[in-house]
Write a structure and sequence with these properties.
mainly alpha, globular
């Protein structure tokens, strides 16, 4: 090995080492608040309010998590976790189904105003829920969907972003596949289910992760349409646990609830990590 090549290897090794050091430091900075929240969920109230804050777990883990799961201000945390899970899955699945069908119709069906309809859908990206929240609330109330899962899910299942992403992917599918399916006598929906959907599985997985987290973190819309405590989501529950004025807050229970609220999104991200990454970097054309 020449001296020049040896020097390049040494520089590359030093750069790789520094990259790993900065990456580890970044992970520690991000993880440290989560670690403190976990520690706070395993100690007593006195340990938290009396400085210094402990940095190692205590012996109250089971007690605090049991209180968090089966008790709460208005409703048990377990019920709120279930509500958030149903809402997040419903929003993610609904957005994907509607976006797949919309993009398929725009790409593979020729009808007057096809481009106009696509750009009208695309323009809705400029109209977040907050802008159209009043008329949306009136429609939901008119259909009697307040304090219901349908009211939590249906107004949020349309997604211009997902429709745009699926359209761009469908445009990369060779026209020969559609022609071959047509020659074999496959009807459009057969072509959709047997060819288009399987080719889109990694894109679907990536969008499911993003949309699940989007649905899980919703706060304003559930707060607006739910007055029954039994329909509260976990994000609403955590906000309600924080004290206002001279109210008393049991911080170990609040921290335990916060940790429990992070578990379902983490499971989804970790469980679908491989498909999620492939959906972002691999078009599978």
């Amino acid at each position: 090995m020449s001296r020049q090549t040896h020097g390049m290897v040494e520089k590359r090794g030093a750069g790789l080492w520094l990259t790993h050091v900065f990456m580890i430091l970044g992970v520690l900075v991000v993880f440290f608040p989560i670690w403190l929240a976990f520690v706070a969920s395993t100690v007593t109230q006195a340990d938290i309010i009396r400085p210094p804050m402990p940095v190692w777990p205590g012996d109250q883990l089971w007690t605090n998590y049991k209180n968090a799961l089966f008790s709460g201000i208005n409703v048990p945390v377990g019920t709120m976790l279930l509500n958030s899970l149903i809402m997040a899955i419903g929003i993610a699945v609904g957005k994907i189904i509607i976006s797949l069908l919309s993009a398929f119709a725009i790409v593979y069906f020729k009808f007057p105003g096809r481009s106009l309809f696509f750009w009208l859908i695309f323009l809705t990206l400029m109209l977040p829920v907050e802008v159209r929240i009043v008329p949306t609330y009136e429609v939901v109330a008119g259909f009697g969907m307040l304090n219901s899962y349908s009211g939590l899910i249906f107004p949020l299942i349309a997604s211009a972003t997902a429709t745009f992403l699926f359209r761009q992917f469908f445009l990369t599918i060779p026209d020969e596949l559609a022609e071959a399916a047509r020659v074999d006598g496959a009807r459009p929906m057969r072509f959709f289910w047997d060819i288009v959907v399987p080719m889109s599985r990694t894109n679907i997985a990536a969008l499911f992760v993003i949309l699940f987290i989007y649905g899980w973190n919703q706060y304003l819309w559930p707060l607006l349409i739910t007055t029954d405590p039994e329909m509260n989501t976990i994000v609403m529950g955590i906000k309600q646990m924080f004290p206002s004025g001279d109210d008393f807050a049991h911080w170990p229970t609040i921290m335990a609830t916060s940790i429990l609220a992070m578990i379902p999104p983490v499971i989804v991200v970790v469980g679908m990590q491989r498909l999620f990454i492939r959906g972002l970097v691999d078009s599978e054309k």
